[in-house]
Amino acid sequence: MLILNKTARVFFKPSKRKVDGFLRSFNFHPGTLFLHKIVLGIETSCDDTAAAVVDETGNVLGEAIHSQTEVHLKTGGIIPPVAQQLHRENIQRIVQEALCASGISPSELSAIATTIKPGLALSLGVGLSFSLQLVDQLKKPFIPIHHMEAHALTIRLTNKVEFPFLVLLISGGHCLLALVRGVSDFLLLGKSLDIAPGDMLDKVARRLSLTKHPECSTMSGGKAIEHLAKQGNRFHFDINPPMQRAKNCDFSFSGLQHVIDKIIMQKEKEEGIEKGQILSSAADIAAAVQHTTACHIAKRTHRAILFCKQRDLLSQSNAVLVVSGGVASNLYIRRALEIVTNATQCTLLCPPPRLCTDNGIMIAWNGIERLRAGLGILDNIEGIRYEPMAKVDISKEVAEAAIKVPQLKMKI
Ligand code: KG4
Ligand code: ZN
Q1: d(CA 180, CA 186)
Q2: pLDDT 10s digits, 74-103
Q3: pLDDT under 70 in the chain at which residues?
Q4: Ligand 1 atom 7: the closest Cα is on which residue?
Q5: Residue 149 Cβ < 6 Å to ligand 1
Q6: How many whole angstroms from 327 Cα to the centroid of ligand 1?
Q7: Which ligand is in closest contact with the Cα of 210?
Q8: How far is the CA of 114 from the centre of ligand 1 (A)?
Q9: Cα distances (Å, whole numbers) of residue 353 to 239, 356, 365
Q10: What pTM was estimated for this model as a whole?
Q11: Is the beta carbon of 220 within 6 A of some atom in ligand 1?
Q12: pLDDT of residue 4
């Protein structure tokens, strides 16, 4: 397998025999022509090795995923070289499984689409190197994919959504609000000034030692918080949402994390327990952090909707808000957003939970979208580059508009 080394920036070629053997297992016939567009998508930007084969009508022909969550939960976070090694060990099997499940031969593929940014350099390198080797062997076009664009456009695979629409991406690595005007036309309205909400929830879950909790031991931090919060009372703690005075659409979560840290320390003292043991008030803390996170996200999104409507960037009566990314699978946060979309006559759409978290389908689908639009398809893979998701950042304009958001009752 070709491996991109982050520091040395060199490629290590896998043996040709290995890739040839891999292709032979599919009865590969170079030069065969097929009419339907079919894309193989490969995702390795963080801690999931995923692949999928999707056709132009949105049919998922085959899918496979290997999650590293359990390993990283044990080490208390992602260690990039460990993630890289796990991707190396699994990528061939995962791509093979997705292709086998699809029942098509590699020669039937119209293109190979792979996440090339953003993400962990060591992890991205494994997917990219493997894909380039396949592209070279199969003589297929290559489509470099921006992970967040793929999250943003996934909804068009499951629902009939026309451009423009507003998208809120909330995950472990990202937090942004953007107006999607086309397959590769994004206007950035706001982003997190520090960490992403999933990262904050993961840190709080780790600080609460939720992997030791019998009900949450195999859950991601955010999922564990959502699960525990159902048993807690958010009113036991009074926490102010971040950035209340900043009338823009930016986010911040590290201050909230520190506030929660202080609460945990205080509770450990009160309950007389050591760091690393489970607090009796863990569920109340989970409920409070989840509620504050939901209110903060809802308020910034509410402002973004008002701004877009004020500037006629979104339809007055048919506006759509799409929420995606790992944190979007949180039903409490979705309900907070529902309160906002009901108050602004917008339609709230979320891909199903398995398409909110990282997966190969969204990468393959983004490849299909790009093939259909004729955008970013490379026949020559030398010197691959990729532009940022949102080339136009209008977050300053949003701040200048200083829209005062009406208070909504967050009875979730
Ligand atoms: O989109 P994703 O799979 O990977 C990134 O691109 O970051 O998102 C993973 C993040 C993790 O931080 C995880 O804790 C969070 O999404 N997450 C959740 C839930 N499920 C996953 N956060 C809140 N509630 C959930 N149910
Ligand atoms: Zn993601």
Answers
A1: 5
A2: 787 788 889 999 999 999 999 999 999 999
A3: 1-35
A4: 172
A5: no
A6: 4
A7: 1
A8: 21
A9: 28, 5, 16
A10: 0.88
A11: yes
A12: 31
